[in-house]
Amino acid sequence: MAFDYLFKRIMREMLPSCDSKPEEVGELPLRIDAVARCRTEQPRAMMIPLLERSFSKVNILEYKSGSDKRRKESLSKLLGYVGLFCDQHNIGIDGMHARLTAWYITAKRPRFLDALVQTKAVAPGDEPGIYEVKVAFPCPCRVVVCDEVAVNEGNIPLLALGSEEAIKAAIRLLARADPGVRHAMETIISLIYLFYHDEVKDMTEMDELLPLKVRESMKHAIEAVGLEEMIEEIGIDKVIEAAGIDKVIEAAGIDKVEAALAKAKANREPKKNK
Question: Residue 123: phi, psi to the nearest 5?
């Protein structure tokens, strides 16, 4: 779930022309990882050009990290989300194609993808890492494999959502990137350092990308990404799992951590019938 949070932050901060946030649909309800609504009346500022070149006015995005299970049924689930979203927003089947695109974004290449390509249910797109779902559906649906996208500056946000090697490639690109790109991704760099600390801490490029105080103290890394928001989004348990309880206590204080853990425990306990 910590990696889902990284995805949501990247989508929110790297899509400046769109309003990207999770959304609940259906009666349970179910939660879509991100719905990106693009403001077409404003000039496009493309921070993830590979995505935004094919964006519709509304985009339904689901993300699978390297540790998530990736099954072909997940694509069916994504299309189910699209149906529930359209029902909730009164979008008819005849209006879906013009208004919506569904995106299945995955860190690693799913095993099922080869079989779907072989049966022509899915076809490679015009850029590495992009696949078009060809089975009949009232709106476009694309698969993005972050590990397969071209290693260039425009794809840094997607590489940062890939496996360990893709993330390291993103860091190397960032170390050579335009200062404006580095500035725009400051929070994302801190998140990578936080969630993938053991994998990236010894990279010399991190010395260029992170202030000394962040590299010397994980407290500053946690502060840089916003502890309160992280706890609200993914829960105190997952923040501790990602960063370690000592580091979270150092950043937030023992009282706040104990209170958050007590609240999380109370929320997990079944409510007694009166």
Answer: -130, 145
Phi, psi values for residue 86, rounded to 5°: -65, -40
Give the pLDDT of residue 261.
Answer: 72
Residues sharing a CB contact under 8 Å with residue 222, sequence separation 6 or more, in sequence order? 194, 230, 243, 247, 248, 251, 252
Q: How confident is the model at residue 274 (pLDDT cuts 50, 70, 90)?
A: very low
Query: Between these two residues, 234 and 181, which has the higher pLDDT value?
Result: 181
Strand order in the sheet with 18-25: 18-25, 30-38, 58-64, 100-106, 141-145, 130-133, 122-124
pTM of the model: 0.80
Model pLDDT for residues 235-273, shown as the tens digit of each residue: 667 677 666 677 677 666 777 777 777 776 776 666 555
**Cβ-defined contacts of 235-244 (< 8 Å, 24+):** 235/1, 235/264, 236/260, 236/261, 236/263, 236/264, 237/261, 237/264, 238/1, 238/2, 238/5, 239/2, 241/2, 242/2, 242/194, 242/195, 243/194, 243/197, 243/218, 244/218
Long-range CB contact pairs, 247-253, < 8 A, 24+ = 247/218, 247/219, 247/222, 248/222, 250/217, 250/218, 250/219, 251/218, 251/219, 251/222, 251/223, 251/227, 252/222, 252/227
Give the Cβ contact number of residue 95 at 10 Å: 13
Residue 260 near residue 236, CB atoms below 8 Å: yes
Q: What is the DSSP letter of 155?
A: G
